[in-house]
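COURSE: Structural Biology Practicum
ASSIGNMENT: Worksheet 4, Part C
STUDENT ID: 0417
INSTRUCTIONS: Below are two proteins. For each, the amino acid sequence is given first, followed by its structure token string. Answer the questions at the end about the second protein only.

PROTEIN I
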Amino acid sequence: QVQLVESGGGLVQAGGSLRLSCAASGRTFSTYPMAWFRQAPGKEREFVAAISGSGGSTSYADSVKGRFTISRDNAKNTVYLQMNSLKPEDTAVYYCAASSVSYYKPKPKSTDFGSWGQGTQVTVSS
């Protein structure tokens, strides 16, 4: 099991940027893929971005492609989500997740992840 702590959320105007961080502990970090999901009020949790253990492969939801960038620093046991050109529809609680298995899936489901952070609120005003 791995423990995850997100930070970096907040309130930003449309068109602005935020950088989320997720610090991991309790397991060999570089072995496992990581991902970001989000959940808006009244909606189901949805996939945002994923990254392989080495950081060499990444994937994104169509709604954020070209605006968001996922990255990781295995020396710091941290994964990041750089969010640019934010839109009001990006408003949600963002969750960091660690995969239960060591192989990378480009379009993972939430059930592929066994460890979750507590979430960080991102609010984009129009």
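PROTEIN II
(use this one for the questions)
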Amino acid sequence: VQLQASGGGLVQAGETLRLSCTGSGDTLSRYNMGWFRQAPGREREFVGGVHRSGGGPSYADSVKGRFTISRDDRDNPKNTVYLEIKDLRPEDTAVYYCAANRGLWIDKLASQYDYWGQGTLVTVSS
């Protein structure tokens, strides 16, 4: 599967942004989907993920309540997974990546994902 992340940009603090991760070559519903971010000088960190079974997403504690993952890939209508970020803060500035694997559970380790999008930059100004 190939992943294409999009939707990033320059936004003001407090705004909402929705990132998209669109798949090609396969149906994303067959994969666990993870979202990660990497700020300058920092390691890539897990922000949330959703299991291929269709169960509810899980989130990193640091983003709970502001980040929402949803997927529109059942029977492959848009073959897209979304990450909505509310109340954006300057510390959310990072390159955001989507990733996929077919493991047993949603993994928080980037090394456990087999497929990656190219990343989309989110810059939040105060």
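ANSWER KEY EXCERPT:
Q1: The CA atoms of residues 42 and 102 lie 27 Å apart.
Q2: The two ends are 37 Å apart (CA to CA).
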